[in-house]
């Protein structure tokens, strides 16, 4: 490998918008992120599926009737 062509890889301080701070390794000294594992809805269990205008119910009604007709 050639020497002195790679960026310096060292400790990095990560700051999340929620206030959480942790240390990792990177080519940058400081990283500012919007979400982390502490505040992300998927990891906190606050993830919600929004059903806009009853789309799921409308889909089930539409295709449930066809499934009954084709199964006869």
pLDDT < 50 stretches: none
Instruction: Just name the CATH architecture.
Output: Irregular
User: How many strand units?
Assistant: 3
Element pattern in H and E: EEEHH
Classify the helix fraction into a percent range. Answer: 25-40%
Biggest β-sheet: strands ordered side by side in the sheet: 2-1-3
Biggest β-sheet, characterized? 3 strands, mixed
Level-1 CATH class name: Few Secondary Structures
Q: Specify the overall morphology.
A: elongated
Radius of gyration: 24 Å
Number of helices: 2
Strand content: 15-25%
Provide mean pLDDT, rounded.
Answer: 82
Descriptive overview:
- It comes from Silvanigrella aquatica.
- Binds the 23S rRNA.
- One of its GO terms (molecular function) is structural constituent of ribosome.
- By secondary structure, this protein is α+β, with helices and mostly antiparallel strands.
- The chain has a single domain, classed as Rhinovirus 14, subunit 4, CATH 4.10.80.
- The protein is built from 2 helices and 3 strands, in the order βββαα.
- It has helices at residues 41-44, 55-71; strands spanning 10-16, 21-26, 30-33.
- A 3-stranded mixed sheet has the order 2-1-3, with no helix packed on it.
- Strand 1 and strand 2 (21-26) form a beta hairpin.
Topology:
Blueprint: E1 10-16, E2 21-26, E3 30-33, H1 41-44, H2 55-71
Parallel strand pairs: 1-3
Antiparallel strand pairs: 1-2
């Amino acid at each position: 490998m050639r020497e002195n062509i790679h960026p310096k890889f060292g400790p990095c301080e990560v700051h999340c918008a929620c206030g959480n701070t942790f240390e990792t390794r990177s080519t940058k000294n400081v990283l500012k992120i919007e979400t982390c594992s502490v505040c992300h809805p998927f990891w906190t269990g606050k993830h919600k599926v929004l059903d806009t205008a009853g789309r799921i119910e409308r889909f089930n009604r539409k295709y449930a009737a066809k499934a009954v007709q084709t199964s006869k």
